[in-house]
Specification:
single chain, alpha+beta, three-stranded antiparallel sheet, 2 helices, 25% helix, 38% strand
Amino acid sequence: MDRAVIRATALACLLAAAPFGAAAHQLTVFASVDCEAVTVEAKFSNGNAVQRADVRVLDGQNALLQTLPIGKDGTLAVPLESVDHAGGLVIEVDTGSHDNYWIVTPDDISKSCQS
C-alpha cells in the first residue's frame, strides 16, 4: 500500500475519533442557590465528581471575589453573605486541564429567597 494512502487513512481515523476523546472528559458545572448559599457541583461527562479544582466566584462584571477549593465530593457551598451578589455571580470551575462555568443571575437569587 502506498505511504500516502496509509497516512491519509491514519489521519482520517484520528480526526474521526478526536471528538469522542474530547467529549469523554467534558466538565459539567451546575450551581443552585437558596437564600443562604450557592451550591456548586462539578462532574465529568462520565458522571465522576471532580475531586480537585479551583472554584472562582466572580461578580456580574467578572471581578474576582473569591477562589476556593472544591470538595472531594465535587461540591462547594459559597455563603451569599460572603460575596457581593447584587449583580449576579459567575461560578468558574477549573481542574487545570478542564474548565467550565455557571451564571447565577440576580433573579435566581431573589427567587430563592421568596418563601
